[in-house]
């Protein structure tokens, strides 16, 4: 039978409603009868790791770098459709490009041109700062940046030159110092000339040309275009009379089937038939331009008839024409996007510009039209965009048309002429009919989108007009809305002197990243890449133009602002276009001297005007915005974690991230191959590192000098100006963010200093001195970010500093001078504490050399310990471990313990570990409490103390026999060690030590330590650790504190520890005995008053009674056959553990299992006084006892009932609340009348059992010493009531019971001296006897007559007592 809670409501819990006052008793609180769900203990979520200021700053810089890296890719704003939004600033200060210098053509060039007989042409090799001129059969090159250049020419052939090109050579064909090949095409031959460049800090300043002997015939081919692949060194050229594409093959030497230099026609494979006269003559198209995209292995050609061909370089010597788009195809594709447009009418293609796969996944080519439109085309391969594909492209589609700036010409159909994407709403009008760039003669595009268009306004103009534009980084970078970025450009028109002959990019091709996302972010590369510079050669000279950075534009705005009001208006415009954070970063950069401008001498110089710098400072301070609370504050409340730092903070972070972006994630060391073998060198140029360091140092100086004006750096007085708690929290959050950045800036400055110091030494020798071989690969992999912001990086740097010091010591240098020099250069990596550590280590090494037992050795050991103690807070775990191990080896045990305890103390000056230990018992405590870290640090130090103790014990046990009266050296050192331990007032250490003792099985040691720490230690864990709790009461008893021992045993019996019920009863019994013991002489006896002792004794007694009841329940459950299976095991296990409450014992077990005797005991313990409950329980108990006796075939069930009543009477001490004599007597009499007869001749004798003992119910109470007054009164009341079953024939039995009761009272009372308790009782009893004897209830049979006679004798005795 399983005892589950009943479905129907139970009666009230015993003891819940008491009629008389009762003291509060443990475990007797009432609970509802129905089971209520208990609130589950919520497990604390793991707390996020505490973020250090450096971690916070590192995360901020990474987020800024990520923000820059997420600058929209080209195809994010050049999608399917059209665009034409331009910003054309009128003010020169806002111009996106700026003229730098103008170079005149050398006089020697004019002299050569004067001798021209056939033709002259000019061009640029901008990548080497040289220009070229072809005069008939001669080509001359000169450095156009030199004031008096020297012409270097190739004049050794007689044929007129048609085309020249500078290309990269095929790897392995020429010696390493040959960087370029000059390809010279004439009407008869093509020559390859090797070019060697002489380079300096300013770039190429001279060239030397060498004859290679490589040439091939190109007769009947009019070479009009040459192009070379930088990746493979392949050279292609095109025929101006046909559309054939040739390749110039060259190699080191002749082979069996190929010569050193030859050509291959990749279009026409066989010899064509001669043209027949009657077919007539047709004009064939020729090659106009050729460009190569090495990232896609593609060659594009533009024919004179407007056809675009795509050739795929599949194999090293193969070239396949895979796509052809004629002029008609292109017109058709345009009409699919724009129905009609004057800008596209009668246009022709003038140039092609490839778009690399690193810049765009899909777009691969831009074609410029004669009307200034730009056609963006994409190639596909196998249905997928060809980014990163190794298969040949199979289709080319027009994706986007970029119209020239509007010149005010109205569109006949408005904007409806676009068949697809409409122009951006709110932007400038699209120039569908624009003639602004109508006569574009040449156009070129350079990454990341600089577009140059050269326009001849009229055929008779002597000069070209240049239109140049670039993507507007501010508008493209604004990503607050869900709309795609607007393709807006900022443009500029410039008048050139002369007609353009050629142009080229002077600087390296631009790329902010090697993938489309973030590729074109010019804002991110303002400080780590050179300015994009372009050269244009005209018939009059050479012009250089540079792309202006935003910082340069800002500086120009301030210089040309026309007063503060005008400049402030420009700043607001700048903030609207670029955002407050970008504006703050720009102002900060200018204030730190990053702005530049072209000076009067046409050179780029830093802007240092005080007015500009001061205005930039004010913009940074006043336009920096404020910190504010995020949406999370509405949930989490006012917390610095929910503060979003100001745009000013973001501007600082943005500026710092852009300064270090080129080095941040790169390794510090790289391996470089040399003729003598690989060597380790710096990944970055030291000059570049110094420039970054200088810029950051200027930033530090700026922030330090202006911190009183900057919110978040102004100090505590700024909090006093806060008008609300919210503002105060916002200021605190801002201060936290800014100080983290300042700390990071300092780390970077010192980190770079360390790197510079590192490369002053031989890296290989330094790595060889590292103690751990595993450190070498970690040093090679260490990045600048790891050095600046990760603890592991700083630890590696410290190891390298140690290696540097050791290397210099080995050279004979003084340790202090070397360490001091390192500390000055990079204090974070070699502080003054490091110098002391080096000195202490030096003393320790000298002590080891001198010997452990030598006097000088002991002096040096003590000196090293004192030095280590001075820098205990800076001593690393590795240093401490090595030092303690060395001290143990030298038997300096006391010093090892003292140092370990000192380091532990210094690692937690706030004693947070102690508060964590004291709170650790709280179940609601955060499992990821930050104080745990402090405890772990201290524990790592205490482990060394334990190691020292083990070493001391081993040394002591190993020593040989010692003469009496002599203290050996080992014994003395053991005493010194334990003296350090016993004198320590470090409670955390003592707790750790006691834990260690317990783990080692040395619990008896604690009994010998007379210290309050032992009591606190055992008391703290006694509720959760059985061994500690048992040891605690033994400790108290050992020192005669029996009352505390009793309290401990009492708590142990009540605890949740895994104790059996029998063990708990044992503890309660011991506690009762200890609480009853009188003590003298104990220190706490005076404060233990008698009342508290009595209260403890009473509580122990109550719990002991409760435990005994539970033990009764447990024994009954074990013998109960109704309880089976798993439920039986659960119930017995539960009852045999913790002491349950009375409610639980009653509702869950006693009441459900019908253990009525135990229910009565629970009533007694709970002081329950509900008469109906008690009467019902007694009735059920008597009935149950009788039935069980009958079932067990007992001969006299009434005897079993009598024994049960006697047992309960003894256990309850006849308590009136659970053993009301009047009720129990009545119930026993009713039981007797219901189941037994006392006369064999009775009418119903055949149905009832015969019981010869008629007086057994009265005997039960006489045996229990129940008061006769109550018995007589009860029987008298039954007589007068005349209620069933005491009416009719049963009144005869009632008379006999009254006579027997009074008779026994007389017999027993005679022994005490007061007959019937006094005359008053006797008079009353005499009246009763007179009445019952006069009622003639008793008959005339022998038995009745005997009882009548007995009654008369009793009456006589009563009369005697009444007199």
UniProtKB/TrEMBL annotation:
Q: Which Pfam families match?
A: Nucleoporin_C, Nucleoporin_N
Q: Where is the composition biased (Pro residues)?
A: 1-12
* UniProt entry tagged with the keyword Transport: yes
Offer one example of a GO biological process linked to this entry: transcription-dependent tethering of RNA polymerase II gene DNA at nuclear periphery
Describe its membrane topology: Peripheral membrane protein
Q: What's a GO cellular component annotated to this UniProt protein?
A: nuclear membrane
Where is it chiefly localized?
Answer: nucleus
Listed A to Z, the keywords are: Membrane, mRNA transport, Nuclear pore complex, Nucleus, Protein transport, Translocation, Transport
Q: Which parts of the sequence belong to the Nucleoporin Nup133/Nup155-like N-terminal domain?
A: 94-543
Q: Where is this region: Disordered?
A: 1-54, 400-425
Q: Which residues form the Nucleoporin Nup133/Nup155-like C-terminal domain?
A: 646-1306
Which GO-annotated molecular functions does the record name?
Answer: structural constituent of nuclear pore
Family that this chain belongs to = Belongs to the non-repetitive/WGA-negative nucleoporin family.
Task: Tell me what this protein is called.
Answer: Nucleoporin-domain-containing protein
Q: Which organism is it from?
A: Clathrospora elynae
């Amino acid at each position: 039978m399983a005892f589950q809670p009943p479905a129907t409501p139970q009666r009230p819990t015993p003891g819940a409603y008491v009629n008389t006052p009762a003291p509060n008793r443990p475990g007797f609180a009432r609970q509802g009868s129905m089971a209520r769900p208990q609130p589950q203990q919520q497990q604390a979520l793991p707390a996020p790791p505490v973020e250090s200021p450096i971690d916070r700053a590192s995360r901020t810089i990474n987020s800024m770098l990520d923000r820059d890296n997420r600058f929209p890719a080209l195809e994010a704003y050049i999608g399917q459709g059209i665009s034409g939004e331009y910003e054309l600033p009128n003010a020169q200060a806002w111009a996106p490009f700026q003229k730098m210098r103008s170079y005149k053509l050398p006089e020697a060039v004019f002299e050569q041109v004067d001798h021209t007989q056939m033709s002259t042409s000019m061009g640029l090799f901008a990548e080497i700062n040289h220009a070229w001129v072809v005069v008939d059969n001669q080509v001359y090159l000169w450095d156009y940046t030199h004031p008096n250049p020297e012409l270097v020419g190739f004049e050794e052939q007689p044929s007129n030159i048609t085309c020249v090109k500078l290309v990269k050579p095929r790897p392995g064909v020429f010696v390493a110092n040959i960087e370029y090949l000059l390809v010279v095409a004439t009407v008869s031959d093509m020559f390859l000339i090797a070019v060697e460049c002489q380079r300096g800090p300013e770039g190429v300043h001279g060239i030397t040309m060498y004859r290679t002997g490589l040439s091939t015939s190109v007769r009947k081919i009019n070479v009009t275009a040459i192009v070379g692949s930088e990746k493979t060194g392949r050279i292609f050229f095109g025929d101006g009379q046909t559309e054939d594409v040739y390749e110039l093959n060259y190699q080191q030497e002749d082979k069996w089937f190929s010569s050193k230099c030859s050509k291959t026609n990749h279009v026409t494979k066989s010899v064509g038939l001669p043209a027949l006269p009657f077919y007539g003559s047709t004009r064939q198209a020729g090659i106009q331009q050729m460009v190569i995209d090495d990232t896609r292995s593609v060659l594009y050609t533009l024919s004179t008839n407007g056809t675009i061909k795509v050739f795929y370089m599949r194999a090293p010597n193969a070239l396949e024409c895979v796509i052809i788009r004629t002029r008609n195809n292109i017109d058709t594709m345009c009409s699919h996007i724009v129905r009609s447009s004057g800008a596209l009418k009668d246009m022709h293609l003038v140039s092609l510009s490839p778009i690399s796969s690193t810049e765009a996944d899909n777009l691969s080519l831009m074609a410029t039209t004669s009307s200034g439109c730009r056609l963006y085309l994409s190639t596909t391969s196998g249905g997928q965009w060809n980014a990163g594909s190794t298969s040949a492209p199979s289709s080319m589609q027009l994706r986007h048309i970029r119209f020239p700036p509007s010149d005010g010409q109205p569109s006949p159909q408005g904007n409806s002429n676009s068949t697809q994407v409409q122009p951006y709403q709110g932007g400038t009008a699209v120039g569908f009919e624009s003639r602004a760039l109508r006569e574009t003669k040449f156009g070129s595009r350079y990454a990341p989108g600089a577009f140059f268009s050269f326009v001849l306004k009229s055929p008779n103009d002597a000069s070209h007009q240049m239109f140049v534009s670039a993507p507007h980084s501010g508008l493209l970078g604004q990503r607050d809305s869900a709309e795609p970025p607007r393709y807006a450009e900022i443009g500029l028109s410039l008048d050139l002197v002369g007609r353009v002959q050629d142009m080229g990019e002077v600087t390296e091709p631009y790329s902010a990243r090697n993938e489309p996302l973030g590729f074109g972010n010019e804002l991110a590369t303002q400080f780590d890449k050179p300015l994009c510079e372009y050269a244009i050669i005209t018939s009059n000279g050479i012009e250089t133009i540079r792309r202006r950075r935003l910082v340069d534009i800002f500086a120009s705005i301030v210089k040309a602002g026309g007063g503060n009001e005008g400049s402030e208006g420009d700043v607001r415009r700048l903030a609207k276009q670029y955002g407050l954070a970008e504006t703050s970063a720009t102002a900060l950069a200018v204030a730190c001297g990053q702005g530049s401008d072209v000076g009067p001498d046409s050179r780029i110089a830093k802007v240092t005007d005080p007015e500009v710098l001061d205005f930039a400072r004010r913009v940074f301070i006043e336009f920096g915005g404020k910190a504010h609370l995020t949406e999370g504050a509405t949930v989490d409340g006012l917390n610095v974690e929910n503060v979003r730092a100001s745009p000013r903070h973001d501007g600082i972070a943005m500026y710092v991230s852009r300064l270090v972006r080129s080095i941040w994630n790169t390794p510090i060391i790289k391996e470089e191959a040399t003729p003598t073998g690989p060597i380790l060198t710096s990944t970055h140029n030291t000059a570049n590192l110094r420039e970054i360091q200088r810029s950051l140092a200027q930033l530090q100086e700026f922030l330090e000098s202006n911190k009183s004006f900057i919110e978040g750096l102004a100090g505590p007085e700024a909090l006093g100006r806060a008008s609300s708690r919210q503002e105060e929290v916002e200021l605190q959050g801002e201060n936290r963010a800014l100080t983290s950045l300042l700390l990071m800036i300092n780390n970077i400055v010192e980190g770079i200093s360390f790197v510079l110091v590192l490369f002053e030494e031989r890296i290989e020798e330094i790595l060889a001195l590292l103690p751990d071989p595993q450190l070498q690969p970690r040093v090679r992999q260490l990045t600048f970010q790891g050095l600046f912001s990760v603890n592991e990086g700083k630890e590696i740097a410290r190891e390298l500093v140690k290696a540097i010091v050791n290397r210099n010591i080995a050279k004979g240098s003084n340790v202090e001078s070397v360490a001091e020099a390192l500390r000055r250069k990079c204090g974070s990596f070699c502080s003054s504490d490091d110098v002391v550590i080096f000195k202490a280590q030096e003393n320790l090494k000298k002590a080891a050399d001198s010997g452990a037992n030598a006097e000088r050795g002991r002096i040096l050991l003590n000196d090293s310990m004192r030095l280590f103690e001075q820098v205990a807070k800076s001593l690393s775990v590795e240093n401490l471990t090595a030092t303690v191990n060395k001290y143990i080896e030298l038997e300096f045990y006391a010093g090892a313990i003292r140092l370990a305890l000192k380091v532990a103390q210094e690692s937690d000056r706030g004693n947070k570990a102690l508060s964590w230990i004291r709170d650790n018992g709280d179940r609601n405590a955060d499992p990821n409490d930050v104080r745990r870290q402090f405890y772990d640090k201290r524990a790592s130090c205490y482990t060394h103390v334990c190691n020292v103790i083990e070493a001391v014990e081993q040394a002591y046990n190993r020593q040989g026999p010692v003469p009496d009266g002599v203290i050996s050296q080992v014994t003395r050192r053991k005493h010194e060690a334990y003296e350090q331990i016993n004198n320590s007032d470090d409670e955390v250490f003592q707790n750790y030590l006691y834990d260690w003792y317990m783990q080692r099985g040395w619990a008896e040691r604690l009994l010998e330590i007379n210290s309050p720490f032992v009591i606190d230690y055992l008391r703290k864990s006694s509720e959760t650790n059985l061994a500690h709790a048992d040891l605690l009461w033994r400790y108290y008893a050992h020192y005669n504190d029996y009352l505390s021992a009793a309290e401990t045993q009492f708590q142990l019996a009540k605890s949740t520890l895994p104790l059996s019920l029998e063990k708990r009863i044992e503890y309660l019994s011991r506690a009762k005995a200890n609480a009853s013991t009188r003590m003298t002489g104990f220190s706490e006896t005076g404060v233990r008053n008698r009342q508290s002792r009595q209260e403890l004794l009473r509580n122990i007694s109550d719990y002991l009674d409760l435990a005994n009841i539970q033990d009764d329940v447990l024994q009954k459950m074990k013998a109960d056959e109704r309880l089976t299976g798993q439920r039986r095991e659960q119930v017995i296990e539960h009852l045999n553990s913790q002491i349950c409450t009375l409610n639980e014992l009653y509702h869950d077990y006693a009441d459900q299992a019908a253990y009525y005797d135990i229910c009565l005991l629970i009533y007694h313990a709970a002081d329950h006084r509900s008469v109906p409950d008690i009467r019902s329980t007694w009735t059920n108990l008597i009935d149950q006892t009788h039935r069980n006796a009958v079932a067990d075939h007992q001969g006299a069930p009434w005897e079993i009932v009598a024994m049960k009543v006697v047992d309960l009477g003894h256990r309850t001490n006849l308590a009136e609340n659970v053993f009301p004599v009047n009720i129990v007597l009545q119930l026993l009499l009713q039981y007797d009348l219901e189941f037994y007869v006392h006369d064999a001749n009775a009418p119903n004798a055949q149905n009832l059992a015969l019981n010869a003992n008629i007086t057994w119910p009265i005997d039960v109470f006489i045996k229990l010493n129940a008061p006769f007054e109550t018995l007589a009164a009860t029987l008298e009341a039954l007589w007068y009531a005349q209620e069933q079953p005491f009416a009719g024939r049963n009144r005869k039995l009632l008379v006999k019971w009254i006579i027997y009761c009074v008779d026994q009272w007389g017999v027993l009372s005679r022994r005490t001296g007061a007959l019937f308790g006094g005359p008053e009782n006797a008079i009353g009893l005499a009246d009763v006897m007179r009445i019952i004897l006069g009622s003639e209830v008793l008959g005339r049979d022998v038995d009745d007559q005997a009882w009548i006679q007995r009654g008369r004798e009793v009456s006589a005795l009563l009369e005697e007592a009444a007199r």
